[in-house]
């Protein structure tokens, strides 16, 4: 085993046994170099591996921060963010809810099977788990089906799908996601409380009711250091 692999494995052990807790910072590179009696290059390789596995994040100017545990989403059944958080023992929360009527741009209109310029309700919200920002969500809803949303509804419902079902009788049966990795930017990093270099997971989702009518088109931006998406495929 290489020296950097040994150092990485020992730091990982210390994280897993609680010696280093989420939000803590690792000792400096110089301190780790002296502790493991290796070169700075070796320590940097070890930390790079820990970053790749999502265990730590490098905060420029502050150090290497221990991440909270990853949120695992295994795609098999439809589950809202709220349900996913509760399943993993985390407390879901919604902040900064803004809903406004806008004209559908070409992309939104195509996804919702509407005319360009048709009215839609644009809903912005910040999703948190245990008070830590996880995702920024922007949803577009056909105005003829949903013509208003009271931000206070989310205090009780938490989930947009619960709001749609309980206040408008709209039940989401199917979703279609397009997932890709993107680079963050300063605006998104500020909302998610991460450095601008933190990679993000982008999901474009179309949600359908039981009659296969699109009820929502959403743009979801998730922290790449906190979220893991698993997809299982079976050969026919």
Key descriptive features of the protein:
Chorismate lyase; alpha+beta; Arc Repressor Mutant, subunit A; 2 domains; 8 helices; 236 residues
Secondary structure elements and their pairing?
Layout: H1 3-16, H2 29-36, H3 40-52, E1 56-59, E2 63-66, E3 71-75, H4 81-87, E4 92-103, H5 106-112, E5 119-129, E6 132-142, H6 153-157, H7 160-168, E7 174-182, H8 186-192, E8 200-208, E9 214-223, E10 227-231
Parallel strand pairs: 3-10
Antiparallel strand pairs: 1-2, 4-5, 5-6, 6-9, 7-8, 8-9
Helix pairs in contact: 1-3, 2-3
Describe this structure in words.
With 236 residues, this protein is an alpha+beta fold. It has two domains: 3-66, Orthogonal Bundle (Arc Repressor Mutant, subunit A), CATH 1.10.10.10; 71-231, Chorismate lyase-like (Chorismate lyase, 3-Layer(aba) Sandwich), CATH 3.40.1410.10. The protein is built from eight helices and ten strands. The chain has helices at residues 3-16, 29-36, 40-52, 81-87, 106-112, 153-157, 160-168, 186-192, and strands spanning 56-59, 63-66, 71-75, 92-103, 119-129, 132-142, 174-182, 200-208, 214-223, 227-231. The strands form three sheets. A six-stranded antiparallel sheet has the order 4-5-6-9-8-7. The chain has a two-stranded antiparallel ribbon with strand order 1-2. A hairpin with a 5-residue loop joins strand 8 (200-208) and strand 9 (214-223). Helix 1 crosses helix 3. The model is unreliable at 72-76 (pLDDT under 50).
């Amino acid at each position: 085993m290489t020296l950097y692999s040994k150092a990485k494995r020992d730091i990982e052990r210390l994280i897993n046994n609680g010696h280093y807790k989420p939000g803590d910072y690792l000792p400096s590179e110089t301190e780790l170099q002296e502790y493991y009696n290796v070169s700075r290059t070796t320590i940097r390789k070890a930390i790079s591996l820990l970053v790749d596995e999502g265990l730590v994040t490098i905060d420029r100017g502050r150090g290497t921060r221990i991440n909270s545990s990853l949120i695992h989403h295994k795609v098999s059944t439809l589950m809202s963010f709220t349900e996913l958080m509760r399943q993993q023992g985390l407390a879901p929360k919604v902040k900064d809810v803004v809903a406004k009527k806008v004209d559908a741009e070409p992309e939104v209109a195509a996804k919702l099977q509407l005319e360009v310029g048709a009215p839609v309700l644009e809903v912005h919200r910040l999703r948190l788990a245990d008070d830590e920002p996880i995702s920024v969500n922007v949803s577009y809803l056909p105005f003829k089906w949903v013509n208003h949303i009271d931000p206070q509804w989310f205090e009780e419902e938490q989930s947009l799908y619960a709001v749609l079902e309980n206040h408008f009788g709209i039940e989401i049966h199917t979703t279609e996601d397009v997932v890709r990795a993107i680079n963050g930017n300063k605006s998104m990093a500020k909302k998610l409380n991460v450095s601008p270099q933190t990679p993000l997971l982008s999901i474009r989702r179309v949600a359908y009711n039981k009659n296969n009518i699109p009820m929502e088109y959403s743009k979801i931006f998730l922290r790449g250091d906190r979220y893991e998406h698993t997809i299982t495929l079976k050969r026919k």
